[in-house]
Write a structure and sequence with these properties.
By secondary structure, this protein is an alpha+beta fold. It is built from 6 helices and 9 strands, in the order H-E-E-H-E-H-E-H-E-H-E-E-E-E-H. The strands form 2 sheets. The chain has a 7-stranded mixed β-sheet. Strands 6-7 form a two-stranded antiparallel ribbon.
Length: 180
Amino acid sequence: MRAIAAVLLTLFSTSALAALKPGDVAPDFAIEAAQAGKDFSFSLRQALEKGPVVLYFYPKSFTSVCTVEAHEFAEAMEEFAALGANVIGVSSDKIATQREFSSKECRDKFPVGADPDFKVINAYDAAFKIPVAGAMFANRISYVITPDGKILSVVEDSGAKKHIQNALAVVKRWRDAQGK
């Protein structure tokens, strides 16, 4: 089933430009999340009190590109932490799936949020529908959000690497501009 979903995601994903742009106010949210296999409530507002937040949306836990992306974010977490940035991934998977994904693929390094009702995904205009199957997923979009709640960067790309590289570069530039 996962293999079929991965093929459908690759073949039929339609990519529209994200409606939210740099300079827009990021929609505030709280979401059920998991890190290191443990559930908690992730609050964007609370996370922003500590520094910038990298919010990335991905289609489905345990699919090929989503797994690679989780591994690459996990490998970069020391760099993000050194810059004072938090990272959270969000998909439409349920919390039980995110609990397992957070341990196995995120390597206990960062949280993933469960958004089966698409509340956060829709607020960030990150939903897409597979035309043939009619299934809904989160599109692969990443946002860098500054502590004042503004979107600093948006990347929409079907590959994983660009999201991590861009987020690190943007957070570094932001930190430098802040004189930190």
